[in-house]
Design a protein that fits this description.
The chain has 296 residues and is α/β, with parallel strands linked by helices. The protein contains 13 helices and ten strands. Helix 5 links the parallel strand 6 and strand 7.
C-alpha cells in the first residue's frame, strides 16, 4: 500500500494512531510488534501528539525505535504540539492552555525529537486553534524548523477554514486533521472539506469510528446508522469498520483516516476499505441515517 505521489508529506493512505499506546500496557517487544504489524499492512505513517498519554506515548514509541532502529527509515512520524497540560510530566506548566509562541513550539519539537529517538519529524501539526496565535510568528518558527532540518512538513489540527487560511497564506500547510465520521459530519458541511479540496490539501481524519460510538452509542442517530450500515455491510460482505472507512474515502477531498487500534485485525478491516468504492445511493443512505432526515 504505497503512498500515491500526491499524498501529503508522503503519508500512507491510512495512518496508524498511537493515541492510546500507553493504555495498552505493551512491553517494548509488543510495541515493536505492533509497529511492524502496521508497517506490514501498509500503514507506514504514525500519528502522535506530545501530550498523548500524559506526555508518555512519544517516549514509549521512541523506546521501541531505539530497540529496533531500522524501523525509523520505514515510516513517517506525525506529531502535534501547542497544548500545555499541567501535571508532574510538565511541572513548569501552570495553566492548562494553548501556546503557539516560538519558544513553546521550538521546545515542543526538541522534546518530541528526543522522546521519539529521531532527528526529524516528517509532519508537525498545531494541535488546536490558539486565540493568541500570531500567524507571522508561527510561520517564521516553522521556517526555522524546516531550515534546521528538524521538521519537513507542517499542518494544522481542528482548525476552522478561516483559521487554516490565516496560517496557510503565510506558509503552505499540507493537511488539517479533523474529526469526521457518520456521527460527526460537521467538516462535510462547514466548509472544511470544500477548502481542502480547493487547496488539494488532503485532510487527515481522527476518530473515524466516532471513538467506538458507532458500535456502542445508545443515541437515536447511532441506532439508525448501525441499522443502515448493517444492511449495506451484509449486502456488500464487509464489516461496519470497513464500511465506515469506505464512507470517508468516498469524499472528494480524499481524506486520510487515522486508525488507532491495538488490534491488527481491526487494521485489516480498515485497509479492506481501500478496495471498496461506495455508490452514491449507499453513501447518502448512511448520511440520511446520521442526519435523521433526507437531503433537502
Amino acid at each position: 500500500m504505497a503512498a500515491p505521489p500526491d499524498q501529503p508529506a508522503g503519508l500512507s493512505p491510512l495512518v496508524a494512531g498511537a493515541w492510546r499506546l500507553a493504555e495498552w500496557e505493551f512491553n517494548v517487544q509488543q510495541r515493536i510488534a505492533w509497529i511492524e504489524g502496521n508497517l506490514e499492512r501498509g500503514l507506514t505513517s504514525f500519528d502522535h501528539a506530545d501530550i498523548y498519554g500524559g506526555y508518555q506515548v512519544e517516549p514509549l514509541f521512541g523506546e521501541a525505535l531505539a530497540h529496533a532502529p531500522g524501523l525509523r527509515e520505514r515510516m513517517q512520524l506525525v506529531t502535534k504540539c501547542g497544548i500545555k497540560l499541567t501535571g508532574p510530566a510538565r511541572p513548569a506548566h501552570e495553566t492548562h492552555c494553548y501556546d503557539t509562541s516560538a519558544a513553546h513550539l521550538t521546545a515542543s519539537v526538541e522534546a518530541s525529537l528526543r522522546a521519539l529517538h529521531t532527528d526529524r519529524i516528517d509532519l508537525l501539526l498545531i494541535h488546536r486553534p490558539d486565540a493568541l496565535m500570531d500567524a507571522d510568528d508561527v510561520a517564521a518558527t516553522f521556517e526555522r524548523l524546516r531550515r534546521d532540518g528538524k521538521v519537513l512538513h507542517f499542518g494544522a489540527s481542528n482548525f476552522t477554514p478561516s483559521q487554516f487560511e490565516l496560517l496557510n497564506v503565510r506558509i503552505p500547510l499540507v493537511t488539517n486533521q479533523l474529526e469526521c465520521s457518520p456521527l460527526q459530519m460537521a467538516p462535510i458541511h462547514d466548509g472544511s472539506f470544500d477548502q481542502a479540496q480547493r487547496l488539494r490539501a488532503r485532510p487527515m481524519i481522527w476518530s473515524p469510528l466516532a471513538g467506538g460510538r458507532l458500535f456502542s452509542d445508545d443515541g437515536p442517530a447511532a441506532h439508525r446508522v448501525r441499522w443502515v450500515m448493517g444492511e449495506i455491510g451484509a449486502r456488500l460482505g464487509v464489516s461496519t469498520t470497513t464500511l465506515a472507512i469506505a464512507w470517508l474515502l468516498r469524499l472528494p477531498c480524499r481524506p486520510i483516516p487515522v486508525i488507532g487500534s491495538r488490534r491488527l485485525s481491526a487494521v485489516d478491516e480498515a485497509t479492506a476499505a481501500l478496495g471498496l468504492r461506495l455508490s452514491n445511493d449507499d453513501w447518502y443512505r448512511i448520511w440520511t441515517a446520521a442526519a435523521g432526515h433526507e437531503v433537502p
